[in-house]
Amino acid sequence: MIIAQISDTHIDHSAPDADRRASDLARTIADINALDPAADVIVYTGDIAHGGRPVDYEHVVSLLRLARAPVYVAPGNRDDRENLRQAFSGWACLASGSEFLDYAVEDFPVRLIAVDTVTPRSNKGEFAPEHARHLTGLIDAEKTKPIAVFMHHPPYVVTVGPDPLNFALAEDMTRLQQVVQQSARVIAVFCGHVHRSTAGRIGQIPVLVAPCTATSLRKGNYPPHMQTRPVYHVHRFEAAYGFSTQARIVAAATDKAVDSGTERDNPEPAERLRSAASAVRAG
Ligand SMILES: [Fe+2]
Prior knowledge:
This protein is α/β, with parallel strands linked by helices and 283 residues long. The protein has a single domain (2-282), classed as Metallo-dependent phosphatases (Purple Acid Phosphatase, chain A, domain 2). It is built from seven helices and twelve strands. It has helices at 18-33, 54-64, 81-87, 129-140, 170-181, 253-260, 268-277; strands spanning 2-6, 41-44, 71-73, 103-105, 111-115, 147-151, 186-191, 198-202, 205-209, 231-238, 242-249, 281-282. The strands form two sheets. It has a seven-stranded mixed β-sheet. Strands 3-2-1-10-11 form a five-stranded mixed β-sheet, with no helix packed on it. Helix 5 (170-181) links the parallel strand 6 (147-151) and strand 7. Helix 1 (18-33) crosses helix 6. The longest helix has 16 residues, at 18-33. Bound molecules: fe (ii) ion (FE2). Fe (ii) ion binds at residues 8, 10, 47, 76, 78, 193, 195.
């Protein structure tokens, strides 16, 4: 099973670099489409639209319809939960009646569980006791398959960023750590928010943080020839070994494909996306 992870696209039609951010997402989707072996699924770990506006989500959805693999999203602090829910209303991954955009995806050898860590009270994450009960219910709903959890805010102390604590309250982060460690079936956590590629652990569970897909907002030192090349994570699962993660540099060949409209003119992936989304069980 191959999971492609993108994060922190910050699509914003009013930003001075709006075209670059959109191009970074389009080229990343084109690169994922060209993976061989193919990606089975794309997880999108938040800060999808910088201001959470409907017009920007419409743009994102128009680009995601070109993806050949089904896409599942978790909100980030820059997202607007209700506008995001509205924009993805036709996609079963967000067709939840619950307050949180938490859900489980049951279609793969590894269960995927999205965790909504967003709060209007802070740019940092929140994870209240009632949320913990909800996530525990999602984890316990199936007892046989391994689980990869994905969310925006990394729930561990990230020492490479400007602020090591990405939750408003340390007790919330501890609560989230406890919930994912309650089940030995949780084998990985995938996050964004920090805008750079890094990794940590919750006990024995590896936590991988994907870099910012928007190259203009990415942190870290990249050489000049890399500064406009998006980087995303490819998580490959094998039953005997668990996950291995590759930081994948978007190939220059995708620039031409996107610019020439080759990707835009292919309607087939959108149909596949809609049908794949129908099998999701929302929490
Ligand atoms: Fe971000």
